[in-house]
Design brief:
alpha/beta; Glutaredoxin; 5-stranded mixed β-sheet; 23% strand
Length: 127
Protein backbone atom coordinates (compact mmCIF):
# COMPACT_ATOMS: atom_id res chain seq x y z
CA UNK A 1 0.00 0.00 0.00
CA UNK A 2 2.88 2.42 0.67
CA UNK A 3 3.92 1.93 -2.96
CA UNK A 4 0.58 3.36 -4.11
CA UNK A 5 0.87 6.22 -1.61
CA UNK A 6 4.26 7.13 -3.07
CA UNK A 7 2.81 7.21 -6.58
CA UNK A 8 -0.57 8.81 -5.95
CA UNK A 9 -0.04 10.44 -2.56
CA UNK A 10 -2.63 10.42 0.17
CA UNK A 11 -5.69 12.59 0.62
CA UNK A 12 -4.31 14.26 3.74
CA UNK A 13 -1.11 15.46 2.03
CA UNK A 14 -0.86 19.19 1.47
CA UNK A 15 0.48 20.36 -1.87
CA UNK A 16 4.04 21.59 -1.59
CA UNK A 17 4.84 23.11 -4.94
CA UNK A 18 8.07 22.31 -6.73
CA UNK A 19 7.57 25.23 -9.09
CA UNK A 20 6.82 28.90 -8.44
CA UNK A 21 3.01 28.83 -8.56
CA UNK A 22 1.04 31.97 -7.85
CA UNK A 23 -2.00 31.09 -5.78
CA UNK A 24 -5.29 31.96 -7.47
CA UNK A 25 -7.51 32.49 -4.45
CA UNK A 26 -9.46 35.67 -5.07
CA UNK A 27 -12.03 36.51 -7.74
CA UNK A 28 -10.43 39.93 -8.16
CA UNK A 29 -7.30 38.26 -9.50
CA UNK A 30 -9.11 37.22 -12.67
CA UNK A 31 -9.19 40.77 -14.05
CA UNK A 32 -5.49 41.19 -13.24
CA UNK A 33 -4.75 37.85 -14.85
CA UNK A 34 -6.55 38.91 -18.05
CA UNK A 35 -4.59 42.17 -18.13
CA UNK A 36 -1.36 40.30 -17.46
CA UNK A 37 -2.06 37.95 -20.38
CA UNK A 38 -1.56 40.85 -22.82
CA UNK A 39 2.17 40.79 -22.01
CA UNK A 40 2.76 37.19 -20.94
CA UNK A 41 1.11 33.82 -21.20
CA UNK A 42 -0.89 32.95 -18.10
CA UNK A 43 -1.20 29.34 -17.05
CA UNK A 44 -3.87 28.06 -14.65
CA UNK A 45 -3.66 24.60 -13.13
CA UNK A 46 -7.01 23.61 -11.60
CA UNK A 47 -6.43 20.94 -8.97
CA UNK A 48 -8.53 18.86 -6.59
CA UNK A 49 -6.61 18.02 -3.43
CA UNK A 50 -8.87 14.98 -2.84
CA UNK A 51 -8.28 13.36 -6.22
CA UNK A 52 -5.41 10.93 -6.82
CA UNK A 53 -5.61 11.47 -10.59
CA UNK A 54 -5.29 15.21 -10.08
CA UNK A 55 -2.36 14.72 -7.70
CA UNK A 56 -0.59 12.44 -10.18
CA UNK A 57 -1.17 14.87 -13.10
CA UNK A 58 0.15 17.78 -11.03
CA UNK A 59 3.31 15.92 -10.02
CA UNK A 60 3.98 14.77 -13.55
CA UNK A 61 3.44 18.27 -14.94
CA UNK A 62 5.71 19.85 -12.31
CA UNK A 63 8.42 17.29 -13.06
CA UNK A 64 8.25 17.92 -16.81
CA UNK A 65 7.63 21.67 -16.96
CA UNK A 66 10.67 23.87 -17.34
CA UNK A 67 10.06 27.36 -16.00
CA UNK A 68 9.61 29.79 -18.81
CA UNK A 69 10.00 33.56 -18.53
CA UNK A 70 7.05 34.06 -20.90
CA UNK A 71 4.61 32.19 -18.61
CA UNK A 72 3.11 33.18 -15.28
CA UNK A 73 1.76 30.02 -13.59
CA UNK A 74 -1.29 30.08 -11.30
CA UNK A 75 -2.47 27.26 -9.06
CA UNK A 76 -6.18 26.95 -8.25
CA UNK A 77 -7.39 24.61 -5.49
CA UNK A 78 -10.91 23.93 -6.72
CA UNK A 79 -12.12 22.55 -3.40
CA UNK A 80 -11.19 25.74 -1.57
CA UNK A 81 -12.21 28.09 -4.38
CA UNK A 82 -14.95 26.47 -6.43
CA UNK A 83 -16.48 29.88 -7.16
CA UNK A 84 -13.24 30.99 -8.83
CA UNK A 85 -13.08 27.71 -10.76
CA UNK A 86 -16.61 28.31 -12.04
CA UNK A 87 -15.72 31.88 -13.07
CA UNK A 88 -12.57 30.67 -14.85
CA UNK A 89 -14.65 28.19 -16.84
CA UNK A 90 -17.23 30.83 -17.73
CA UNK A 91 -14.76 33.64 -18.42
CA UNK A 92 -12.56 31.57 -20.74
CA UNK A 93 -15.22 29.32 -22.27
CA UNK A 94 -13.78 26.01 -21.13
CA UNK A 95 -15.73 23.17 -19.59
CA UNK A 96 -14.78 22.59 -15.95
CA UNK A 97 -12.42 19.66 -15.46
CA UNK A 98 -10.07 18.60 -12.70
CA UNK A 99 -7.23 18.36 -13.09
CA UNK A 100 -7.14 20.95 -15.83
CA UNK A 101 -4.51 23.13 -17.44
CA UNK A 102 -5.56 26.35 -19.18
CA UNK A 103 -3.21 28.64 -21.12
CA UNK A 104 -4.39 32.22 -21.58
CA UNK A 105 -3.09 34.87 -23.95
CA UNK A 106 -4.71 38.26 -24.62
CA UNK A 107 -7.62 37.39 -22.34
CA UNK A 108 -8.53 34.19 -24.21
CA UNK A 109 -7.93 30.51 -23.52
CA UNK A 110 -5.69 29.30 -26.34
CA UNK A 111 -5.06 25.80 -24.95
CA UNK A 112 -6.60 23.56 -22.35
CA UNK A 113 -6.06 19.97 -21.34
CA UNK A 114 -7.33 17.75 -18.59
CA UNK A 115 -6.53 14.49 -16.86
CA UNK A 116 -3.99 12.35 -18.74
CA UNK A 117 -3.86 14.87 -21.61
CA UNK A 118 -1.95 17.34 -19.43
CA UNK A 119 1.53 17.43 -20.93
CA UNK A 120 4.20 20.12 -20.51
CA UNK A 121 5.57 19.49 -23.99
CA UNK A 122 2.15 19.98 -25.59
CA UNK A 123 1.74 23.23 -23.70
CA UNK A 124 5.02 24.64 -25.00
CA UNK A 125 3.82 24.24 -28.57
CA UNK A 126 1.47 27.20 -27.93
CA UNK A 127 4.19 29.52 -26.66
Amino acid sequence: MSFLKNIFGSEDQQHSPSMPWNQLNDLGQLNNLITESADKYVLIFKHSTRCSVSRMALRQFENEFVSHDKITPYFLDILEHRNISNDVSEQFGVTHQSPQLILIKNGKAIFDASHSSIDAEDLLRYI
